[in-house]
Design goal:
The complex is a heterodimer of chains A (about 325) and B (about 525). Chain A is about 35% helix and about 20% strand. Chain A has six helices and twelve strands. Chain A starts with 18 loop residues before the first helix and ends with a helix. Chain B is globular. The chains are: A alpha+beta (about 325), B mainly alpha (about 525). The interface between A and B is large, with 85 and 90 residues.
Chain lengths: ~325, ~525
């Protein structure tokens, strides 16, 4: 219960299924109030002038006022200050929405296509979505989604979590959320994607985390985990010829402890090795060359499917 | 204007631009900016009716009154695409500059015509050619991308009709660039003696700022659209990830034009409002310089905010934050304008003829549109609202509530000058009440739908969104009826309206100092200007 629940407009918002949803709604309530106040000042002022200065006879004279520096300064400066405040408040929430916490309980690869989503868990469980195959996640714990698309741009929107992220083909984007309570939450596609765009819906089902653990470890749908499949692929594609998995220096950088380590490149730039970096390094291997190495790796663009790339990434992530 | 302007002793039966040459051919080959303006009027009005038909179809479908959906999904998506493409590229962008601007700009400057009359006529035919090419996409092939043509849907997953629509928009872009060029040169070179840059009417300042955006931003759209064509026909691989391209790059290109284009749509409307408020308050505009310079400021900042369409596209968090703060800056010159217009009414003597009602309607609706824009500029808030009905409501409040209200107000205001006759004030007022009411009934519920989470471009939706969608649809009929009444009022005015005097509103700008309708070259003797444009002393 807070002052924001006094604003009827906030009642139109979907249920607040996450902590961030509450924060978003607080900003929303503030925006509604400040908009109402601004509206009353502007349109109320206008209406008052219209009534007060309505022309009543033909020979009436208007005042001759060209400008007023003080008033003009005030009505430029005050809106500026208010808007900077709104900017800052929005930025604080945005950074929370975009920065997953350290401890992620579930990490799911989500791939959009016309007009369905596929979700693959780290242990190989894989689901081709439809309304009756919800995405199972733990309640009270953080879930991270790694999004991409097979064909056109889709967007993963969970109104109850107040979050949304485009799934772009040829790129990995991410989204995280932490549903407070067990329950079912609807997911819309919000990037127009063709005929059945509005039918591309799934549900996220949050279940108590002990139940989730039991479900997660119960019989698998796929034969092997993505990391297992990635390991096979790593051998098949000859990656081991240049990349060690035990820290030894060979032609290319070792895979050991690579994920989330800081990489320095020959052009002096740095980045943290996240999924997108791994993906790029596999597909367009000469894009970023790690310091002290040479650009000798062939690009794998067009030779690996998205799923294969995801499997390789999962394998590399597992080499700690 | 309290200037030593020329009094014309011309009556209405005398020679004027409407009877200067007769027959269809004299219109089709005319170099007179006033006639070209009216040809744009007829063209844009026709296109508006077509775009409006698609809008009513969309709304009727979404009301779900019957058990069966009215449209199938593919037809719905085409309706949605044509409604957007026609209204944006063929109605709102050319509406005020090409039609009202063409008619008014040279007269307000005291010029005989625009700087390049032949180029002006060519611009019109280029526009017609572009509109025809775009329209042919409707007949020949499936176009269902929405007016934004996002890749790779447009390049890899839908029919080749897109190429025609894109080619049409490309062609119309040239018309826009050439008109902008013409206006800039006219403003600089053809002002009447004594008309310094701080004595030009605010309508001209608005058109001038718009023209700058048109000539700088439109080429970018043109290139982007060409790239879509190249991608689709030749597979060059700029946007298609399968070919090594980047689909988000398209969005950067597209919004780098299309965000400034939003100001191509709204700045001229602000110009019209500045004219109407001062004329119907019978008072000098408050803060002339602030309004003029804020137009230029909006034009400048408009180039730096395109990324606010892409907060959830996968662009970096930092980029989102930077675009958010720059977007907030747009709010300041916009607020300045609103405050100035309201202050203009203070201690004025205000009357409420139809054009003024539309100006007040603009203020009301544009204020709501502007304030809800702040919601969307705020990153954390926008993540929830992006691509929902909240956005649909917001930009309709700005573009329809803003631009179309100003366009209607401008038509009623300059109508006596165009045709030498008055429109029925009652007709204008009835159409205003219907449009204004219908507009709010249609679009206000959409803010709520957006907050509830209903995404845009949806053929179908969850049951809990039904009631608000039905209210919205009923509102759309009121708008349709309002424009129908407006159309009848205008046609009646052209043929049966009372004769207009030279200056029926008692306004001060130069176009009211010549006869209604003006002679072929606007003024019998070139006027001399000795004071500012709104000198109601």
């Amino acid at each position: 219960m807070s002052w924001s629940s006094l604003i009827p407009a906030t009642s139109f918002m979907p249920i607040q299924a996450t902590e961030i949803a509450k924060e978003v709604d607080l900003l929303y309530a503030f925006l509604i109030i400040s908009s109402l106040v601004s509206f009353v000042i502007l349109i109320g002022g206008m209406t008052w002038f219209l009534i007060k200065f309505k022309r009543t006879s033909l020979d009436q004279k208007s005042a001759y006022i060209t400008h007023n520096n003080f008033a003009e300064f005030l009505w430029s400066f005050i809106p500026l200050v208010i808007m900077m405040g709104i900017f800052y408040w929005g930025m604080v929430i945005f950074e929370k929405l975009r920065t997953p916490p350290e401890d992620i309980a579930a990490e799911i690869h989500v791939t959009g296509e016309q007009w369905a989503w596929t979700y693959r868990y780290a242990n190989g469980k894989e689901f081709y979505s439809s309304a009756n195959e919800p995405m199972i996640v733990p309640a009270g714990k953080a879930t991270k989604l790694i999004l991409t698309s097979k064909d056109v741009i889709h967007s993963f929107y969970v109104p109850a979590f107040r979050t949304k992220q485009d799934a772009v083909p040829g790129k990995l984007t991410q989204l995280w959320f932490e549903p407070k309570q067990p329950g079912e939450y609807i997911v819309f596609c919000t990037e127009y994607c063709g005929t059945k765009h509005s039918g591309m819906m799934i549900k996220i089902k949050a279940i108590p985390s002990e139940e989730y653990a039991a479900w997660y470890h119960a019989e698998k749908k796929g034969a092997d985990t993505p990391a297992d499949l990635g390991k096979v692929l790593f051998a098949q594609k000859g990656c081991a010829g240049c990349h060690s998995i035990d820290g030894t220096r060979v032609v290319g950088p070792t895979m050991k402890g690579l994920f989330e380590s800081e990489r320095k490149f020959t052009d002096g730039s740095k980045t943290k090795a996240d999924e997108n970096y791994l993906r790029e390094s596999i597909l367009v291997s000469t894009a970023k060359i790690v310091e002290t190495y040479s650009p000798v790796m062939p690009p794998f663009q067009g030779q690996l499917s998205d799923v294969e790339v995801a499997n390789l990434i999962e394998y590399i992530k597992s080499i700690k | 204007m309290s200037s030593a302007h020329t009094k014309t002793e011309h009556g209405h039966t005398d020679h004027n631009y409407l009877n200067h040459g007769s027959g269809i051919w004299s219109w089709m080959t005319t170099l007179d900016h006033k006639r070209i303006g009216l040809m744009y009027f007829a063209t844009v009005a026709t296109l508006f009716l077509i775009g409006g038909f698609f809008a009513l179809g969309i709304r009727l479908h979404l009301a779900k009154f019957g058990a069966e959906p009215l449209l199938d999904p593919d037809t719905y998506n085409k309706f949605m695409t044509f409604h957007g493409a026609i209204m944006v590229f063929m109605v709102i962008i050319p509406g005020i500059p090409a039609f009202l601007g063409n008619f008014v700009l040279p007269i307000q400057l005291g010029a005989k015509d625009v700087a390049f009359p032949r180029l002006n006529l060519a611009s019109y035919y280029i526009f017609i050619a572009g509109a025809a090419i775009a329209a042919s996409s409707m007949i020949f092939n499936q176009v269902d991308t929405g007016w934004t043509f996002y890749t790779p849907y447009s390049t890899a997953k839908t029919g080749n009709g897109v190429i025609l629509l894109v080619l049409g928009a490309f062609t119309m872009g040239f018309s826009s660039i050439l008109t902008g060029l013409n206006f800039i040169v006219t403003t600089h070179k053809l002002r009447a003696p004594g008309m310094t840059m701080d004595r030009i009417p605010l309508m001209i300042w608005a058109l001038y700022s718009t023209s700058i955006i048109q000539i700088l931003a439109t080429p970018i759209l043109a290139i982007t659209l060409l790239l879509i064509g190249a991608e689709k026909t030749l597979g060059v691989g700029i946007f298609d990830p399968d070919l090594g391209g980047d689909p988000v790059l398209f969005q950067h290109f597209f919004w780098f034009y299309s965000h400034p284009a939003v100001y191509i749509m709204i700045l001229p409307a602000m110009g019209v409002i500045s004219e109407l408020i001062t004329a119907f308050s019978k008072k000098t505009i408050f803060g002339y310089r602030a309004i003029a310079y804020s137009s230029v400021a909006i034009a400048a900042v408009s180039f730096l905010v395109w990324g606010h369409h892409m907060f959830v596209s996968g662009q970096s968090t930092l980029a989102g934050i930077i675009f958010s703060i720059i977007t907030m800056f747009v709010g300041v010159p916009t607020a300045i304008k609103l405050f100035n217009w309201i202050s203009t009414m203070y201690r004025g003597t205000v009357t409420f003829e139809a054009p003024m009602l539309f100006a007040l309607g603009f203020m009301f609706l544009f204020t709501i549109g502007g304030l809800t824009g702040v919601f969307l500029a705020s990153t954390g808030m926008d993540v929830h609202f992006h691509d929902t009905y909240f956005v649909v409501a917001h930009f309709h409040y700005v573009m329809v509530g803003g631009t179309l209200m100003a366009l209607m107000g401008g038509i009623y205001y300059w109508f006596p000058k165009m045709f030498g006759r008055m429109t029925s004030d009652l007709g204008g007022r009835i159409s205003w009440v219907l449009i204004f009411t219908g507009f709010n009934v249609t679009f206000f519920p959409q803010f709520v739908l957006g907050a509830m989470g209903m995404p845009r471009r949806y053929f179908d939706y969850l049951p809990e969104y039904t009631n608000l969608n039905q209210i919205s649809t009923v509102g759309s009929w009121l708008i349709g009826l309002g424009f129908l009444v407006g159309l009848i009022t205008i046609i009646h005015g052209i043929f049966k309206g009372e004769k207009a005097s030279d200056n029926p509103w008692g306004a001060k700008t130069l176009e009211w100092q010549t006869s209604s309708p003006p002679p072929h070259e606007n003024f019998i003797n070139t006027p001399t200007v000795t004071a500012g444009p709104y000198d109601f002393r």
